[in-house]
Give the backbone structure.
Amino acid sequence: MSVTKRNEADVGYVEIDNPPVNAIGQSVRQGLLDAVRWAEELHLTRVILSGKGRAFAAGADAREFDSAPLEPHLPDVLNAIDESFVPWIAAIDGVALGGGAEIAMACRMRIMSPKSQIGMPEVTLGVIPGAGGTQRLPRLVGLAKALDMISLGKPLNAADALAAKLTHTVEDDPVEEAYMVNTEELGCIVPTWELPAPEHDKELLANARATIAKKSPNQIAPNRAIDVIEAGLSIPFHDALPIERAAFLELKTGEQARALRHIFFAERAAKMPETIKADPVALDHIAVVGGGTMGAGIAYALLNAGLRATILETDEDGVARAQTNVEKVIDASLKRGLISDARAQDHRARFNATTDYTTVGDAMLAIEAAFESMEVKKDVFAKLAMTLPKEAILATNTSYLDINELAATLPDPSRVIGLHFFAPAHIMKLLEIVRGDKTSDAAIATGFALGKALRKIPVLAGVCDGFIGNRILARYREAADTVFMDGSTPWEVDEAMEAFGYAMGPYEAQDLSGLDIAHANRRRQDATRDPNRRYIPIADRMVELGKLGRKTGAGWYRYPGGNGKVDDPIVADLAIEESHLAKRERTDYSGEQITERLVLAMINEAADILDEGIAHNARDIDLVTVFGYGFPRWRGGLMHHADTLSAKAIVARLRELSQEDAVAWKVSPLLERCAERGINLADAAPSK
Ligand code: T1G
């Protein structure tokens, strides 16, 4: 039973019991509707509604969104509760999100526990509230708050919900408190639907639309939600509901909602493959080698997960730098109210920085985040292998280097794994877990256990240059440099990719990270680069000119006064000169043409990555591109997006492009197979 009910005299207790988070599927809707009838038949004086487990209700069951909605529909169930002569009290402990919040708002009264949250995150799934939320919330909290909550999708904690008058009170035991509520007081509360809608306010609506234009420019649902809220301000409640419902039903079958659902469930499916049978080592004290920005971010993430972290450095200057870097992150988290003073003190107590490797003799995991040089890493691993217990796992945070080569330097290469964090390591959710040829299941299990402890999205990757993410990034950058050399400008390329949905284009992004990193990689690849592959020399010229990006004041753009980017004619001239030297004809590419080339280049490379078994499935590539490289979440990630284009159309276009350059645009065999068989990349199997 997804909904249980019992009564004590004239008080009814109804509980949603649909683990793990009381998602509101058909059986919950039916159970609630039955409970309304039951309470009315028994002429109860109140119904106390609660959720079993860690949630009140996490919203409509999004797994049902791919099929036609089954009766009873949630709006009807909630109208039955709202209009019933038996008042319902929502006793909220845990989260009340989306349809869960709508249920609570249809109740006469809401009582929240201090740790609970209430919110309307529907837009994060590409839909809008579909069960009265766009009409009831403004009536309870006013227009401004409702616009904010619904169009941005951010939940309120109990204190903020009380301040917003969304909950009547905050109590440790909401069910008990609901029982104690004075019946007369309860009887005086006006049903939500009968409350007057707030006044139409042009300015508030315009501000909300302006905020959305900045925060989620390409997304349909937020604007649609504002339209529906506005529509309901000047018509009766029950006339507005069908408008809301129609918008919800239309959006849920739309491409953006499908893409956002895909990422929602992909994120939750990012778990250790069932083929891994070993147990992880005990995670308590973890050594981090290198106290630079990355090492310090990793150490802070460990501290935030309640673990002990020791940063190992080569000298006292390094130790001091490590302490400063970690303290900077603690400070920033304190200022943002993410941690309390007591928690900060506790972090400091579990942190150490030293040159003394013997202090980590009990650590069962070490994460090396030292300078990106194979020689440095081999030296560090030799020391770690001698110091840590022999069962301990040795991980490297390298972004590119060959883990097999590193592991081969150790007596037991099976204890070596790649744990590739993304900067800033304590914020970015993605963790690439890189399996070497000899890596043990225990090491893999430890990587996933750490990913879980740090609330990261773990993705298993095989060994190749750049693993999953950086390999796709390198092809993306190469395609960008090619259109730049052949006719475009960094500005045009960035503009095109921002229009596609990236928060920032490749050139502005590289100015932030620095042109020297990619340069070092190109030099590392000189010996192995395919001589037949076209090489774009512009970025090398930039580095020769000392244009490394923001850190040198100028890169692909200039940043006068450290402010916004401005075009740099020197950079544009570089491309014209190089294309002239290469006797290349320059083309005036449109934004669409630029986007098409960069996206197809990534898809083709990703298909090879999947075909080679470097990635286990297309879903993992979607997670990497969205959570590590800024691919628009509302497009569902690179491979999900590719499936909206179809392998057939992609292969046809790649074949045309390969006329221009047969090496760079060589069509991935996996794409060919998908096109031939008419299958999606999401269902494609690696050939290796
Ligand atoms: N539908 C279906 N499954 C859901 C779900 C949902 N709404 N929410 C969670 N799950 C599953 C999830 O896939 C996972 O499954 C398990 O529950 C635990 O989740 C009509 C249209 C509630 C804060 O957007 O934000 O209501 O992997 O790992 O970290 O107007 O889940 O175990 O098989 O995330 O503790 C609006 C979405 C829906 C909230 C808990 N609601 N959920 O986080 O656990 S639209 C949302 C969350 C709607 C109405 C509209 C989080 C959580 P599995 P978890 P968690």
